[in-house]
Amino acid sequence: MSMDLSYTSEQQAFRQEVRSWLEEHVPDEPLPSMDTAEGFQRHREWERVLAAGRWAMVTWPEEFGGRAADLITWLIFEEEYYRAGAPGRVNQNGIFLLGPTLMEYGTDEQKARYLPKMGTSEEVWAQGWSEPGAGSDMAAIRATAVLDGDHYVCNGQKTWASRGAFADWIFCIFRTDPDSQRHKGLTFILAPLDAEGVTVRPIEQLDGETGFAEVFFDDVRIPVSHRLGEESAGWKVAMSTAGFERGLMLRSPARFEATAKRLVDLYRRHEDRLDGRVRESVTRAWMNAEAYRLNTYATASRIIAGGSIGSEASLNKIFWSEMDVQMHETALSILDARAQLLPRAPAAADVGSWLDGYLFSLAGPIYAGTNEIQRNVIAERLLGLPRS
After folding, report:
1. Dihedral angle of Cα 201, 206, 209, 212, to the nearest 10 degrees
2. Which domains does the chain have, with CATH numbers?
3. Is 257 a catalytic residue?
4. Closest CA to 27 of 53, 45, 51
5. Which one is catalytic: 245, 257, 280, 290?
6. pLDDT tens column, 90-114
7. pTM of the predicted model, to two decimals?
C-alpha cells in the first residue's frame, strides 16, 4: 500500500499563512526561561498573542478559538513553528494534553468553562499525577477524594507537577473508592491551585530554576462539577491523556527535526577534526528524526480516517525519548570539553543550548511513563506476552 506524501494546495497555502504570521510576530530575542517567574509571565503573554491569531491550537473547534483543522494541518503548523524558532509553550500540559481529553470526556459546560481560558493561557495548567510512591505506576496512587455532598474532600500529595510552581490549575487523579485496588476506583479531578488547603512547594532544579512543584492537599473541597468523566473511571480518562502525551501531541516531530538540523549544522562547522563514527551518529540522528516524522504523519492519517492511537503510543514514546538523548549526546561529543560550558562563558563560542537540551533530554525516558514501563506495555498489549 503506497502513501501519498505530497501536500494539497490548501495545505501549502496554510503553510504560507503560518510562515508569514510567525515571521511578523515571533519575538526577535529569546524569552527568559519559563521556569522563572518573569519567563513564565512572558511566555503566558506570548500564548495570548498566539490565541489572538487563532494559532494557540489549530485543531480546536472555532468556538473555542481554534481553526477546526485536522492533524495533518497541525503537523504543518508545528513544522513552521519550530522553523521560526518560536517560544516554547508554557501551557502545553493544558493545550496539548488536557484540552483534547476535555474534548472527549468533558461536558458542554466544562468545555465552555475551561477551554477558552486555556487557549489564551489566562489559566495555565499543571499535571498532577505522580506521587512519592506512584510515578510511572499510576495505579499505585494513594491521594484520596471523599464525596461529601456536592464536593470532594481531597487529601494527599502530588509531586513533579510540571509547571506547578506558577500554574493556576492542576489536573489530578485521586482514589475515590478506598476499598479499590490498582487502577480501579480512580477519578480524574480538576483542581484550582489557589483553593483553601492547597500548598504548592516549588522544586528547585540543578540550575536553580523551578520547572516543577510538589502540591499538598489538606481537606481541600472541590466541587463535583470539577470531575472529568464518571467517578471511578479516572483510569480510562487518564489513559486517553497519556496517549496524547506519549504518542502524538506533546512531542511533535518538528521539535526533533529542528534539533537534527542544528546538529548537522554543528557537525559541518567541526567536520575537519571529526572521525567517521561521529558522522555516522549525526546521520542516524537525521534519519531517525525523518522516520519519526513519517510515522507521525501515518498515525495522523489513520486517526483522520477514523482510527485511534492505543498501546502503540508506548512505541512512539520510547523512540522519541531515546532519539532525543542520542542527538544531544552526539552534539556534546562534537563540542568536546567546551560542552560543559554555559552559553555565556567567554570560551563558549558555538555551544549554544546543547548542554541545557541534553540535561532535559535525560528526563525523556522517565516522564510520560518510564521507558521500562512502556516496554512492559508493549510486551503485554502489543506482543501478547505473559506478565512476569
Report:
1. -40
2. 9-90 (no CATH), 125-232 (2.40.110.10), 251-382 (1.20.140.10)
3. no
4. 45
5. 245
6. 998 999 889 989 988 999 999 999 9
7. 0.83
